[in-house]
Amino acid sequence: TENGLQGVQSCVNYRSDRVDKMLTEIEEESRVNQSEVTTAIGSLRQLIDERERVLLESVRNTEKDEKKKVEDYKRKLQGEQQNLIEQILKFVVVCHDKNPKKLLDAKKPFEDYIKATDTKLLELKPLTRAKKGLPGLKALKDMETQIRNITLEALKHDNEKLRQLIVNNTDKSMLNLSSSEWTDLDMEIVAEELEINKSLTKLRLFTNQISDIGAQHLADALRTNTTLTDLELHGNLIGTGGLEHLADALRTNKTLNILTMYGNKVKDQEAGFIADKLKTNEKMEPQIRKINEIPYTNPQLTQLISNNINSAYVDFRSKNLNDQDMKIVADELLQVNKVVTQLLLQGNQIGDVGAQFLADALKVNTTLKELYLNSNKIGDVGAEYLATALKTNQTLTRLDLYTNQIGDSGAQYLGEALKTNKSVTLLQLQTNQIGDSGAQYLADALKVNK
């Protein structure tokens, strides 16, 4: 009850803080946007004034150059007109004089004038002029249209490449979007997929450009998602704020089993404070607390699992597998392989913790019929985990636990499970540490188990 009340209080505080931050962000964003608009328009006015002066000066210079050319032509033409008038007057005077000799003498100068003038007129060709428009005037008008059409409405982000990857993904239970530089805005699209896809159990988003905003989009989707069990976000840019978003979603989301976030921007102390508020999710609270721990890996085992991902018979005998390896087996084999019926794990180094990982997988696995765990290091605690799983698992028919370290308490847990389990027909416990009382617990269970 205390943890529940603390959880409610944390949820309320988180939402209250988030609202206050959003109001502050809205006001600050508006202030910055107003300032940027004023600065941009002011700069634009200044630029327009400067360009107006330059362009008008260019127009006036063009006018001056063209007028000078025409006026120079006009002056030359006026000179020829004046010469023509003088020649005409001379011609009139000569014509009025009836002296034939004077007429004959005047003929050659007139012919020379006409010939020379014709030559000049050939050089002084008639002026032509096409109406000249300003090449940049259309650009100015286009710019005016662009300015009139500017709006400050937020555009909805889209990423066709990301959408196609999601659509073309054939395995609807797993979506790998790792190492692709996806951003916070892209996480809106991924969040949509989390809300739509009811088969998705594993989402790989590691090594991208996701920060707090992207984590918030994912967290919002997790609040209603009931299928995702594995979310890999390591190697991104998520800080304390993003982890708080995810932790708040995990107060109500009890489906997610694995969250990897090492290699982000969350400090251990901050992760501890956030984990303290997550008492309502016992499965995820320790993971949040150790968010920066790099998880155990076993490439050889992963490759073995990959080779057997569609096999009904899986043999991992005597591979020196340990407890942490069982987490890999549980997550990558038992929760992914939908056809495995026999799993051989005898002769390894599996203890109580490894048994817990396997037990958790057995609670949801519906195909495995035979599990061989003999010749390991499982004790009473491990037997308890397996017994708890048998109370819900109704598929397993054979469980080999001989040559382990199970004592009377472990036998008691297994006996209690057998009272309700109706599927197990063979349970091997020889060569353990079970005494008379343990045997009695099992015998009592068999009286009920029919």
UniProtKB/TrEMBL annotation:
* Pfam families assigned: LRR_6 (PF13516)
Q: Which UniProt keywords apply?
A: Coiled coil, Repeat
Superkingdom of the organism of origin = Eukaryota
Locate the transmembrane regions by residue number. none
Q: Which residues form a coiled coil?
A: 56-83, 140-172
Q: Which Gene3D superfamilies match?
A: Ribonuclease Inhibitor
Q: What is this protein called?
A: Uncharacterized protein
**From which lineage does this chain's organism come?**
Eukaryota, Metazoa, Spiralia, Gnathifera, Rotifera
